[in-house]
């Protein structure tokens, strides 16, 4: 089966973070309603097009609300909450920002993340929500940190990288705490959360290799039965179904971003039988690949031959 070779109007953000970076050594940018960020001329138009993220994006809504689409799912970010969007996810901002009264947008790339002193488990989104709710107490710590980052980025001094990274580490540590705060007692029982996080990390690394559940359990040094209980507890599905869901999601991202034949996508994702891949795609999405591609063309507004 071959997908019609029409190129979707997608915004290529690959080099955007470098273009708008406010620091000479780190690729990082922050903006507010009253910020003086200089953006490319096409930004105001392209920002509403679907785009595959090339950087980490955090949207903090202090007052009002905001709507986004992440991997085709509509997400509402309510007052006193933060949204995180990860590299490779398909993101689109809703056109109406009139309800957003006060906000911060922060973005930085993989290289910047690699310079931080630790990893942040919430970025694996084990609780299946890209929104972090913030209490008033949380905001009394987080808002000054964001303001400090903005202040540093608005100075001409280039010897601020270590200070900037320290603030960024504080911010992400706060978000990590807030994300897990109400779930640590019930969900981390007997190390289950740690196992689930390791499982998700492994799936991300091996997704295109179609790893067997037996191999995954062996690499995690647990039994298949234990793996089933852990994954079922957090995701509501079996490990096999979870892997299939993530594989189909990656296929949707590829179709969303590239005019490519279904057969080629099947091989990219480790399938040896393209017909089986097509049937699996329809079973999991309720749509044929052709129907899905047509819908995302409509979502992007238009297409070109």
UniProtKB/TrEMBL annotation:
Record-given protein name: AraC family transcriptional regulator
PANTHER family: ARAC-FAMILY TRANSCRIPTIONAL REGULATOR, TRANSCRIPTIONAL REGULATORY PROTEIN
HTH araC/xylS-type domain boundaries: 197-295
Record bears the keyword Nucleotidyltransferase: no
Gene3D superfamilies according to UniProt: Homeodomain-like (1.10.10.60)
Source organism, top-level taxon: Bacteria
One Gene Ontology MF term: DNA-binding transcription factor activity
InterPro entries listed in its UniProt record: AraC-bd, Homeodomain-like_sf, HTH-like, HTH_AraC
Keyword list, A-Z: DNA-binding, Transcription, Transcription regulation
SUPFAM superfamilies: Homeodomain-like (SSF46689), Regulatory protein AraC (SSF51215)
PROSITE patterns named in the record: HTH_ARAC_FAMILY_2
Keyword Transcription regulation (UniProt): yes
